[in-house]
Design brief:
mainly alpha, 434 Repressor (Amino-terminal Domain)
């Protein structure tokens, strides 16, 4: 499972994450070590906290599905806006964003 990866990407300690999702740190530690499996309720809490699907969290392979992992709020907003564009504007947005990426230092 991607517990440790997501936690580290978010810059959290095990204690901080456990407090944020209201579970004992020792339980969370066992989930990361994969010595104990979390309940579905806990899996949902963790997935919701990071804004990822259960498939992504549990490393379940799916076909034709884009999984982006942990995203900050700006990235989520950008993706939502892009989804609202028509095909012509999506093409323009790709060209524009590609130019921004290429121009980064």
């Amino acid at each position: 499972m991607k517990f440790k990866y997501l936690r580290e990407q978010a810059g959290l300690t095990q204690t901080e994450l456990a407090q944020r999702i209201n579970i004992p740190r020792i339980n969370y530690n066992k989930y990361e070590l994969e010595t104990v499996s979390p309940t579905i309720k806990t899996l949902i809490q963790i997935a919701d906290y990071y804004g990822v699907s259960l498939d992504y969290l549990c490393e379940h392979e799916t076909q034709n599905k884009l999984e982006l992992g942990y995203l900050d709020e700006q990235s989520k907003t950008l993706i939502k806006l892009i989804q609202e564009l028509n095909d012509k504007n999506k093409t323009q947005a790709i060209a524009y964003v590609s130019g921004l990426v290429a121009g980064q230092e």
